[in-house]
Design a protein that fits this description.
two-stranded antiparallel sheet; elongated; 19% strand; alpha+beta; single chain
């Protein structure tokens, strides 16, 4: 990988991490469950499990 593509990759990963943190905070603030799909089944998970 070139230096430029490494920098872009780092920026993308940083943005994804920020989005993840904001999602968890939003779900906790609004008292909503986090909805995910695992092996074709819909799961409702308490977002406080993912809070740092």
């Amino acid at each position: 990988m070139t230096t430029n593509s490494i920098k872009i990759r780092e920026k993308i990963l940083k943005g994804l991490e920020l989005t993840y943190r904001r999602l968890i905070k939003h779900k906790i603030d609004r008292n909503f469950d986090l909805v995910i799909s695992k092996e074709g089944k819909v799961l409702l998970i308490d977002p406080k499990k993912f809070q740092e």
